[in-house]
């Protein structure tokens, strides 16, 4: 009977912090999109995709964090692997908002850089945890 605990405390803490940060990130990004649409001549057909990416990212964040939390706590590699896969999707959307949205402000760069760094760290911890669960 192997009773050693394999779940990762640093991963659990980071998932929690990322959940809090993402709420801030979403609200700040939404506020900036609204601001940019008022201050800059934002073409209507460009505002919708930028908003869609932000909302799609928010929708992805819920199962991403849930699977990360539950996979880590139950020491199950499948939910953690799915969470890692969703993280890849979130990274792609984050890079879109960092590089390809219609207007990118310094605040966008900062918000997205912090989020990408957190995703990177979290992904590393997930891979390490999955390796521990499998072995």
Automatic annotation (TrEMBL):
Protein name: TMM80 protein
InterPro entries xref list: Uncharacterised_TM-17 (IPR019184)
Name of the encoding gene: Tmem80
Coarse class of the protein's main subcellular location: other
Gene Ontology cellular component annotations, sorted alphabetically: ciliary transition zone; membrane
Coiled coil location: none
Intracellular or extracellular location(s): Cell projection, Cilium; Membrane
Keywords: Cell projection, Membrane, Transmembrane, Transmembrane helix
Signal peptide: none
Keyword Membrane belongs to the record: yes
Originating species: Notiomystis cincta
